[in-house]
Amino acid sequence: MPLLDVGYRTWTGERTYASTRWLVVASTGIRLIWRGTWLKRLMVVLLIPSAVALFFFGVFEQSAEDPNYRNIIRSVFAAREARATAARAGVNINEILLNPTESRHFVWSYLLFFLFRYPQAFSMILVIGLIAPRLISFDLRSRGYLLYLSRPLTPAEYVLGKACVIFFLLAMIAAVPALLIYIAGLFLSPNPWVLFSTWDIPLRVLIATCILAIPTTAIALAFSSLTQESRYAGFAWFTLWVVGSVTYQALATADQLSRREPLRWGEYSHWMLFSPYETLGYLQQEVFGLTAKVGMQWAPWCWILLVSVIGYSIAYWRVARMLRV
Predict the structure, then answer these.
(1) 265-297 burial, b if ≥16 CB within 10 A, otherwise e?
(2) Domain residues of the chain, as ranges?
(3) Mind listing the pLDDT tens digit for each residue in 175-186?
(4) Which among 204, 168, 221 is positioned nearest to 283, based on CA atoms?
(5) What is the DSSP code string of 54-112?
(6) Virtual CA dihedral for 52, 282, 180, 102, nearest 10 degrees?
(7) Rounded to whole angstroms, how far apart are CA atoms 14 and 272?
(8) Which of 13, 103, 127, 218 is the most exposed place for a label (fewest CB within 10 A)?
(9) Exposed, middle or buried, 232 (CB in 10 Å: 0-12/13-18/19+)?
């Protein structure tokens, strides 16, 4: 009687579909990063700007019935940035104060865009810079990718699973709070038909989140795959945003001085392509319909498409190359 049967044994465990194998990589990565208490505390802190945006939603809806609340709305849209955005969207600031209900779509879109443009964008840069550098570089250093790819898993599915880890975090940072604010706005509004005038805003939120997530994830994974030291990938990530913003500000200011024409806030400039932050911000303006009078600019769209293709291709090439070594 044999003590050890080394013959072939059929698999008795649960089988997964080939099209969902990348979910194993994604779920494993999410569980690993979610174990840390610092990430949970950070996510709670990042909800504070969403609470502020919800407050302004409530104030605006109350201003439709109580004129006393319109002073707060007047102070918000008295800023230069708000007036410049309203001008590009073809909205008169005075109409917002005189007839808030007719300007609800613009105000809601502007508040959510402002949430994406500043708090959520900076939160994205911080969270991805802390999480993404280890996603592939740590596996390359420890050769843990061999454990993944020893299963019937292709390098493309491995990269997709790692990307979904970042997609999940960005959805929690950007999409989920914005959608919850929109739903709360529906309940705060005294008009029961507000859904019919703002039905497209959730779609715009999802598209804006994709614009934020797809190219930034491609860049982060490319940096993570190019080195086995995660600190180098993190340094490259933060350097890209800082250097890009400084370069844009320097070139835009020099161009403004040479033409002796003021560059209004948020106005499109070809120098934006040097700054990922400015490029993504302008595209989100277009998505939220805040550039109706300007029209669509195709250069930023083509640029982020090219960056996304190059970033994911580099990550795939590095993982596939390591398998052949």
Answers:
(1) ebbbbebbbbbbbbbbbbbbbbbbbbbeebeeb
(2) 19-46+103-179+193-324
(3) 999 999 999 999
(4) 204
(5) HHHHHHHHHHTT-GGGHHHHHHHTTSHHHHHHHHHHT--HHHHHH-GGGGHHHHHHHHH
(6) 80
(7) 50
(8) 13
(9) middle
